[in-house]
Specification:
With about 150 residues, the chain is mainly alpha-helical. It folds into 2 domains: about 80 residues; about 60 residues, Arc Repressor Mutant, subunit A, CATH 1.10.10. The chain is built from 6 helices and 3 strands; from the N terminus they run ααααβααββ. Strands 1-3-2 form a 3-stranded antiparallel β-sheet. Helix 1 runs antiparallel to helix 3 and helix 4 packs across helix 6.
């Protein structure tokens, strides 16, 4: 089943393409007009006023924005899916530190060092990895950091 974001992006893409087609559709010229039309009617129908040109410009801009936003939405959806990491992929220190944070949340980074008897450097590196994997959130609190679970 597709996600709502992907469906919305597809709808935006289709709407943008339709508007783009409308905005780029050529208006008939006097050479294409039937000879039955009078000069006055020909001028009104075949010589678009400035409003029509503005209409084309506005629809072109709107369609371009819709198309760009749909591609951006789809790109971000794929990007976020790629960035998600499974908890099953955590190994060793990452897993033990994550479990500790989950149990004691919110917890200070200095408390992790004391309770798990792991070096400050190792805790800092593991927290950086977990933060990159978007599993935790680190907030600066004075001289240390407060760690919370993000998922």
């Amino acid at each position: 089943m597709k996600s709502p974001k992907k469906i919305a992006a597809s709808v935006l893409l289709i709407a943008g393409l339709l508007l783009l087609t409308i905005s780029l559709y050529p208006y008939p010229t006097t050479e294409e007009a039937p000879e039955v039309l009078t000069d006055q009617v020909t001028r009104q129908v075949l010589e678009p006023e400035e409003e029509t040109n503005y209409f084309q410009i506005i629809t072109f801009i709107i369609s371009t924005v819709l198309i760009a936003s749909s591609f951006l939405t789809l790109y971000l959806e794929v990007y976020v899916e790629q960035r998600k990491f499974s908890l099953e992929n955590l190994r060793g220190q990452e897993k033990s530190i994550y479990q500790y944070i989950k149990e004691k949340e919110p917890v200070y980074q200095s408390r992790i060092v004391k309770d798990l008897k792991v070096s400050k450097v190792k805790v800092s590196r593991v927290i950086k990895k977990l933060e990159y994997k978007q599993l935790i959130k680190k907030e600066k609190k004075g001289m240390t950091n407060q760690i919370k679970i993000k998922i």
